[in-house]
Amino acid sequence: MKNVFNQADAEELITRINNLSPETKHLWGKMSVAQMLAHCNVTYEMVYEQDKHPKPNTFKKFLIKLLVKNYVVSDKPFRQNGHTAPQFIIKNDKDFAAEKTRLINFIQKTQQLGEVHFEGKDSHSFGNLTSKEWNNMFYKHLNHHLNQFGV
Description:
Layout: H1 7-18, H2 33-48, H3 58-73, H4 96-118, E1 122-123, E2 127-128, H5 131-148
Antiparallel strand pairs: 1-2
Helix pairs in contact: 1-4, 2-4, 2-5, 4-5
């Protein structure tokens, strides 16, 4: 798996994002390209805009860690048309350019902060993660949705 903390790999993700246009169609799923970008931004919002998404209570966090964590932070790819958490569901229209800019800025910020910053960092739903788990979560999710839109 590629590494979001590596500048070349982060730039490759950004190049793929820059190959999207407002008219890009999905190969599977229901989201528009702008909704997909907003959906991908949620992961970063949970890191950088923590007040935007309330943390789960202790019991719910325990269940999420038990049932979901390993699937999300492993290097096993996501399957097409899989389920997602409610806060990741984007139903309303989104501004393509704004969501694209936000996502690129989040990727750049994450890469610049680097692995050391994320090593042992507490996640919104999974508790403390290693930098490898953070990378897997960030990269796997972005790669999955960029593939969904053929870039």
